[in-house]
Each structure stands twice: as C-alpha cells, then as structure tokens.
C-alpha cells in the first residue's frame, strides 16, 4: 500500500508527464481555495457603496484590458 507522500509524488509525476509542467500547474490551480474571507470582504465593499454608485457604474462602458 502506498503512503500518501508516494501517491502525491506519483500523481504529480503522472500529471507532469501527461500535461507538461505548465499544464500541470494550470490543472492544480483549479483546486486552490485562495485566502481571505470573501463574504466579509464583499460586505465591506457593499456596505460602503450606495445603490446610486452601483447604478452609475453599470451604465459606464467597460474598459478593455490591453493584451
């Protein structure tokens, strides 16, 4: 029976062999929960933003990012 460390190493090796290093990283990034408290952060933003400000920002044209 494999240890958790052996499973982890073999799994990463299999991903790297099949997807390449960049693909492996992109695949693993899907499972990162990130940090912080989104609900708390959102409430802080929402609580200091008026409904009029939200309406105004929705009327403004979106700025395109340069690539």
Structure notes:
This protein has 3 helices and no strands. It has one domain (4-58). The relative contact order is 0.06. It has helices spanning 4-29, 38-47, 51-59. The protein is an all-alpha fold and 67 residues long. The longest helix has 26 residues, at 4-29.
List descriptors.
67 residues, 3 helices, mainly alpha
What's the short story on this structure?
This protein is an all-alpha fold.
**Rg, Cα atoms, Å:** 21 Å
The fraction of residues assigned to DSSP E strands is under 5%
The tally of beta strands, per DSSP, is 0
| Integer tally of domains | 1
Helix content: 55-70%
Largest sheet: none
Mean pLDDT: 87
Instruction: Compute the separation of the termini in Å.
Output: 49 Å
- State the helix count: 3
How would you sum up the global shape?
Answer: elongated
Question: Based on helices, strands and strand pairing, what is the structural class?
Answer: mainly alpha
Report low-confidence residues grouped into runs of 5 or more: none
Encode the helix/strand succession as letters: HHH
